[in-house]
Write a structure and sequence with these properties.
By secondary structure, this protein is α/β, with parallel strands linked by helices. The chain has a domain of 127 residues: P-loop containing nucleotide triphosphate hydrolases (Rossmann fold, 3-Layer(aba) Sandwich), CATH 3.40.50. 41% of the residues lie in helices and 14% in strands. The strands form 2 sheets. It has a 5-stranded parallel beta sheet with strand order 2-3-6-1-7. It has a two-stranded antiparallel ribbon with strand order 4-5. Helix 4 links the parallel strand 2 and strand 3. Helix 1 crosses helix 3 and helix 6 crosses helix 7. Bound molecules: adenosine-5'-diphosphate and magnesium ion.
Length: 203
């Protein structure tokens, strides 16, 4: 029997957090994000997303009722508009409110700009949301050096057990063929793969 090497990710835990506080925060932060995007939706918990948001509560509070591994980050995949990015952004604001930990948000189409600004090593350890993975340029030359920005970051982040949150619209086999099986295995070690279902909220 071969054991799957499971990496324990460094992650903050929110203690003494009640469901009432959590659902109030969901509404506040969910609506704030929608308003910032100048959209007219009202943030809501529906039959489609109730299980997702319940698991997020358990994940945040390190409660073993969670259906996901509590020692891994999160990767939400599924079709456009189902609420993947907003769910991770809400986690970002809740973590900031209760732990003061800042989670970087990187839309992968702007990944190169971010790396040019901060350098690759800046992203070795810090908590990051990679929004819409596999839409970035695979290989780039920065200061004369050729890098594969996302795989290079994932290798370093894997070494450090860095909290990694991600979204994408792609199927797993597309991700695997884009990044290769080694990086794909690292992503599996770093993140719970969670398929987000339901209809699009985009009107
Ligand atoms: N729980 C929700 N209640 C109401 N509207 C939502 C909810 N989740 C998402 N939306 C709406 O759908 C839009 C798209 O959500 P987003 O998270 O960006 O989708 P995805 O990342 O899955 O493509 C949001 O900007 C928001 O207006
Ligand atoms: Mg998105």
């Amino acid at each position: 029997m071969t054991a799957i090497l499971s990496k324990k990710v460094n992650r903050p835990i929110i203690h003494k957090y009640t469901p009432d506080q959590y659902f109030a925060d969901l509404r506040t932060f969910g609506q704030m994000i929608i308003n910032d995007r100048c959209e007219e939706n009202t943030f809501e918990i529906t039959d489609d997303n109730r299980e997702l948001y319940t698991n997020i509560f358990y994940w945040l509070t390190y409660n073993d009722k969670c259906q996901w591994s509590l020692n891994k980050g999160l990767y939400f995949f599924g079709s456009k508009g189902v609420g993947k990015s907003i769910a991770l952004l809400i986690i970002k604001w809740i973590l900031y409110k209760y732990t003061s930990i800042h989670v970087e948000f990187i839309q992968t189409k702007f990944m190169i700009d971010k790396i040019t600004e901060h350098g690759l090593d800046y992203y070795n350890k810090r908590p990051v949301i990679f929004d819409d993975i596999a839409k970035e340029q695979m290989t780039v030359k920065i200061f004369g050096r050729e890098i594969q920005p996302f795989p290079d970051m994932i290798n370093k982040r894997y070494e450090h057990g860095a909290l990694t949150l991600m979204t994408s619209n792609f199927k797993n086999d597309t991700i695997e063929s884009k990044y290769g099986s080694v990086i794909f295995d690292r992503l599996i070690s770093l993140c719970n793969f969670v398929k987000i279902t339901g209809g699009s909220f985009r009107k």
